[in-house]
């Protein structure tokens, strides 16, 4: 990234600096494609996972319209990231003849494949199915191969958001559209990709100078793309999964022992190694979050915050978790730079905070 920033070339320029920038972009494209088990020419670089999901959904709908094989239904799993849900909702609201339906999940946050099969069989119309590879709140890994089989049998299209799964599990799958984000695998923020399988309907939404094979106009973010490529290369070569699974499992076992009453969500599901989502019943997430932050421990709330109002997470709601427990949900993430001492510090801070907060809750 530093080299790209120093050189400052535009990847579309024909002079030496431009050619060097183009080289960096194409090396990154190869690395990202390899990570996803895809072809380099199908990779479209974007400004991140949100743009990639928006581009996939709107691009599929308009692409199908242009190919005179219009999409009339979008099925979205109940646990999709808001960048999928909100764009599907916007399409259903703004594009005549397209409706959206939700695919339910089990209590462990796994997509109900049988329900999807029935939804695909019932009713008419060409369908786009959106199921993520792994959930960003619980880490629950979804049965993508089974989903892809039903989608293929029904002649439908499949969008797989692999943002959380990339670099942690093998993400190669039979998706028509697959989305990635660099910062989830150690790359820079503001860099991502959409991979469109050859033959899948797709219309460009950002016309411009013809960049990204005319599929996404705009001068490429060469440094961001170079960083994404480097992260993808490292992720494909070296897996940290076993070490992180040990850290996560030790954290959860100790938490259950030291803070009785803790609920761990999706504990029965196959999960990514980097996520632990739990609730300390009776203690609101935002109270815990602020107290832990003062102690130097940075965790996330499992709840979505919008316009200053904290709402229970739609993911936990879809899993049947009651609102009063869902508002207590905290999320701890483990990454390439997490260590045993971080786990010890987080456990100590949690134990100290609960000892202070619980008597007040009981009173
Ligand atoms: N999809 C999932 C599953 C995510 O977890 C995120 C980010 O948290 C996104 C999409 C959006 O990616 P970005 O932050 O690059 O816009």
Structural class, from helix and strand content? alpha/beta
Question: H/E element string?
Answer: HHEHEHEHEHEEEHHEEHEEEHHEH
What is the distance, rounded to the nearest whole angstrom, between the alpha carbons of the first and last residues?
54 Å
- Oligomeric state of the chains? single chain
Low-confidence stretches: none
Largest sheet: 7 strands, mixed
Strand content: 15-25%
The name CATH uses for the topology of the largest domain is Aspartate Aminotransferase, domain 2
Helix count, DSSP H or I runs of 4 or more residues: 12
Describe this structure in words.
With about 375 residues, this protein is of the alpha/beta class. The protein has two domains: about 1-235, Type I PLP-dependent aspartate aminotransferase-like (Major domain) (Aspartate Aminotransferase, domain 2, 3-Layer(aba) Sandwich), CATH 3.40.640.10; about 240-360, Alpha-Beta Complex (Aspartate Aminotransferase, domain 1), CATH 3.90.1150. About 40% of the residues lie in helices and about 15% in strands. It has helices spanning about 1-5, 15-35, 50-65, 80-95, 115-120, 145-155, 220-235, 240-260, 285-295, 315-320, 325, 340-360, and strands at about 45, 70-75, 100-105, 125-130, 155-160, 175-180, 190-195, 265, 275-280, 300, 305, 310, 330-335. A seven-stranded mixed β-sheet has the order 1-7-6-5-4-2-3, with helices on both faces. Strand 4 (about 125-130), helix 6 (about 145-155) and strand 5 (about 155-160) form a beta-alpha-beta unit. Helix 3 runs parallel beside helix 4 and helix 5 (about 115-120) runs parallel beside helix 6 (about 145-155). The protein is globular, with a radius of gyration of 21 Å. The mean pLDDT is about 95. Pyridoxal-5'-phosphate binds near residues 50, 81, 136, 161 and 181.
């Amino acid at each position: 990234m530093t080299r790209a920033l120093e050189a400052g070339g535009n990847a579309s320029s024909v002079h030496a600096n431009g050619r060097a920038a183009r080289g960096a972009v194409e090396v990154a494209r190869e690395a990202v494609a390899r990570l996803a088990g895809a072809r380099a020419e199908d990779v479209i670089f974007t400004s991140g996972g949100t743009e990639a999901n928006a581009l996939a959904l709107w691009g599929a709908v308009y692409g199908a319209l242009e190919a005179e094989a219009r999409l009339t239904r979008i099925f979205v799993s109940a646990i999709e990231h808001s960048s999928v849900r909100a764009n599907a909702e916007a399409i259903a609201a703004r594009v005549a003849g397209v409706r959206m339906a939700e695919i339910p999940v089990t209590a462990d946050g796994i997509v109900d494949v049988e329900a999807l099969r029935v939804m695909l069989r019932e009713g008419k119309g060409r369908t786009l199915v959106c199921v993520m590879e792994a959930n960003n709140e619980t880490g629950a890994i979804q049965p993508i191969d089974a989903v892809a089989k039903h989608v293929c049998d029904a002649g439908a299209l499949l969008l797989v958001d692999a943002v959380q799964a990339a670099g942690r599990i093998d993400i190669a799958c039979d998706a028509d559209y697959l989305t990635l984000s660099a910062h989830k695998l150690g790359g820079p923020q503001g860099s991502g990709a959409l991979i469109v399988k050859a033959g899948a309907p797709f219309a460009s939404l950002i016309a411009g100078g013809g960049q990204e094979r005319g599929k996404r106009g705009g001068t490429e973010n060469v440094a961001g793309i170079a960083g994404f490529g480097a992260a993808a290369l490292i992720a494909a070569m070296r897996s940290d999964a076993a070490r992180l699974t040990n850290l996560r499992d030790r954290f959860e076992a100790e938490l259950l022992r030291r803070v009785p009453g803790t609920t761990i969500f999706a504990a029965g599901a196959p999960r990514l190694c980097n996520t632990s989502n739990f609730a300390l019943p009776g203690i609101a997430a935002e109270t815990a979050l602020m107290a832990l932050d003062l102690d130097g421990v940075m965790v996330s709330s499992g709840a979505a915050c919008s316009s200053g109002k904290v709402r229970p997470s739609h993911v936990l709601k879809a899993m049947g978790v009651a609102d009063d427990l869902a508002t207590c949900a905290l999320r701890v993430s483990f990454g390439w730079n997490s260590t045993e001492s971080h786990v010890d510090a987080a456990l100590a801070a949690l134990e100290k905070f609960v000892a202070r907060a619980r008597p007040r809750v009981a009173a």
